[in-house]
Amino acid sequence: MLAWTGLPQILLIPLVPRLMKSLDVRYIAFVGIALFAASCFLDIELSYDVSGDQFLTPNIVRAIGQALIITPLTAITLAEIAPKDAGNASACPTCCAIWAAPSARPACRPSSPSASSSTPTSSASR
Fold first, then answer.
1. Closest Cα partner for 62 from 2, 5, 119?
2. How far is Cα 55 from Cα 47, in angstroms, rounded to an integer?
3. Which of 7, 43, 46, 67 could form an S-S bond across to 12 if both were Cys, CB 3.0 to 4.6 Å?
């Protein structure tokens, strides 16, 4: 089922820069955000009775929206950056995405409960 989410992106993302040459980047990003929002509205009546095949249409619409958001949003973000700083600045959207999704940063999570404990041990327990 996840192939239907990735396949439209694999097909569209290489075409988006060509589209950006002929259309304003903001319009492409707007259409992408609108499609992403439409996919959320397609999921508005979900219940426990919904199965995998009923997610097909919303996932395809969401994948098309994501493909139309990623490249234009990066271009908008980096538009005013000097060429010498572009390499460092291009990491900004990625870092924001990683920090926004806690599940996407496994290296930042402590490996054991004792590693996350910041309470000092008492001398009586030694």
1. 5
2. 12
3. 67
Length reported for the chain: 126
Q: Which two tokens stand for residue 92?
A: 């900004």
First to last CA, the chain: 54
Residue type, 126: R
pLDDT along the chain (126 residues), means of 10: 77 90 93 94 86 84 91 84 76 62 48 50 49
- Read off the DSSP letter of residue 124: G
Query: What's the confidence (pLDDT) of residue 109?
Result: 45
Whether the Cβ atoms of residue 92 and residue 59 lie closer than 8 Å to each other? no
What does the alpha-carbon distance between residue 74 and residue 93 come to, in Å, rounded to a whole number? 7
Residue 70 CB partners (closer than 8 Å, separation 6+): 13, 16
**Both tokens assigned to 40:** 């959320």
In contact, 68 and 29? CB cutoff 8 Å:
yes
- Amino acid 57: pLDDT: 87
> What residues contact residue 60 under an 8 Å CB cut-off, 6+ apart?
4, 5, 8
Confidence (pLDDT) at 25: 92
